[in-house]
Predict the 3D structure of the following.
Amino acid sequence: MSPSRRTAARSVRMLGVTAASAALVLGVSGSALADNITYFSAEAACDGTKGVITVTDKDPAATPAVVTVFLQNNNADLRQVGRPTQVKGSAEGVTITFTEDWEPNAKYRIHVRTGNAEGDIEPYLTAPAKACAAAETPTTPTTPAGPSASASPSDSASAPAESASGTPAPSASSPSASDSTAPADTTVSSAPSPAVGESNLAETGANSHTGLIVGIAAVLVVVGGGAVFFGMRRRGPGNR
């Protein structure tokens, strides 16, 4: 065999070994990724009145992974839901939540990247046929129309006030018991009427000081008489 043929055959064998090695590596990586993807599951659910998408990782090896959710439209990514979220699974399962107000029967692609391998959860996630229930708006009870709670000034003035015992008190316009006029005494008195002078003195109150004035006058008379008496004695009988 010529040297050129031996060189060509050796190159072909080297390319075959390289291709086989690459295929083996890709096959191992693909199987490892496939094994890792099987640990993941996704669900569209309701958290109260809001829609959410939950992804659960049950990888017992706790291999770190990054999960990204995409809304699908005609088998193409329409938009990304939230942000890529890292998860580290466990045998019991670790759940991460994406807030998404999903519509009925909407489809989502769940993409998982772990290490140098990545792939999608198959099949794609389909949302339930019924949307989450909307929050009920509380209704405000209406107050029936009726008379006003406070009476108008004219009504309060005309309405008779009630006493503490519950008996209506007489209104301001009606005569009270104290203002009622006593009946006139028709009995003719036989006593003589007082004189005009006495009546005036009684009305003006002049007779109330008469005794005091008389007493003062008497004292002055006695004092004056005593003074005259003592004065005449001091002069003596010859000076008269």
